[in-house]
Model the fold of this input.
Amino acid sequence: MSDSTRTFKGKAPKLGLHTYIDTSAVMIGEITLGNESSIWPLVAARGDVNHIVIGDRSNIQDGSVLHVSRATDDNPKGHPLIIGNDVTVGHKAMLHGCHIGNRVLVGMGAIILDGAIIHDDIIIGAGSLVPPSKVLESGYLYIGSPIKKARSLTEKERTFLKVSADNYVRLKDEYLREASQ
Done:
């Protein structure tokens, strides 16, 4: 365990291969971080009352908050937070008990609430609010508060989703190299 990762009720974060967690980030409890993924400065991730899974090559940028919802009589499984592969989560986003597919860009300051399902290949505009249990269909740009489908993604935007994740893998590698010197 490092200063950035903490055990809670006997459950500790599990880190994949070649991951980067900034020393100012905090990851507590039942969290699984996939291979080649990165957690940037001032991220707070609490897998305390449910679990968090972050896929491969995903990046959670500065000041983002990741949390979950506990099990209740009405919702016996609660709401874990599941983030797919090649996901870019912009600065100061708040993700709470939602499910995010693969190749998704969550814009800066966006808020995604309990039970929301974000399918693959989506861009969520900066400052958008995804209400509880909202389902976003694959292949679109969504914007607004509350969020609305704006238009289909262009082929260039679809390609950019993977490029964005790849850029953060390279940046993460630079940080790891510098830290090892």
The chain has a mean pLDDT of 97. The first strand starts at residue 5 and ends at 6.
